[in-house]
Amino acid sequence: MSRILGIDHGTVRIGLALSDELGMFANPLKTLDTSPTVELEIATIVQQKRVEEIVIGQPLRMDGRRGTATARVEAFADRLRKALPHGVKIVFVDERLTSVAAEQSLGLHNKQKTREEKKLVDQIAAVAILQDYLNTLNGPDAWLLPEE
Q1: So where are the chain's domains?
Q2: With left for phi above 0 and alpha for psi between -120 and 50, is residue 86 left, alpha or beta?
Q3: What pLDDT, on a 0 to 100 scale, did the predictor assign at position 100?
Q4: 59 — phi, psi (to 5°)?
Q5: Burial class, 29, CB count within 10 angstroms (exposed 0-12 / middle 13-18 / buried 19+)
Q6: pLDDT tens-digit readout, 45-66
Q7: C-alpha distances out from residue 94 to 2, 28, 44, 82, Å
Q8: Roughly how many angstroms between the first and final C-alpha of the chain, as a whole number?
Q9: How far is Cα 131 from Cα 4, in angstroms, rounded to an integer?
Q10: Which neighbouring-strand residues pair with 91?
Q11: Residues 17 and 57: beta-carbon distance below 8 Å
């Protein structure tokens, strides 16, 4: 079965999360440093992990408007699309406050963070982005067992 990759794109680091094969759960995968070859690194991961869809967090302003960060992420998605195998779908989801939620869940909110803690925050933000998307796909009844 195929998987879905979640991406939290930042100016310094890119957090990655990967769904399980059933598309129910998002798990932290890794954090990449941004570089001129990061799209190729992600394309390699897509092939290795049999990813068919990528969910990228879209950084909208708190009022829902697009800003410079939104344009930066869309430019990244365009470069990534060119590096990916044909047929891999890219979708955007609202990522407002996912990094804040990740910091809070790790007990790191309003605290000076180490490099390793920052990497972990990026992965957990990617998990939040991907899990929100998976929950939307699976709907509210995904956990119900069929009646006999």
Answers
A1: 3-138
A2: beta
A3: 53
A4: -80, 90
A5: buried
A6: 999 999 999 999 998 777 777 8
A7: 23, 19, 25, 23
A8: 27
A9: 10
A10: 55
A11: no
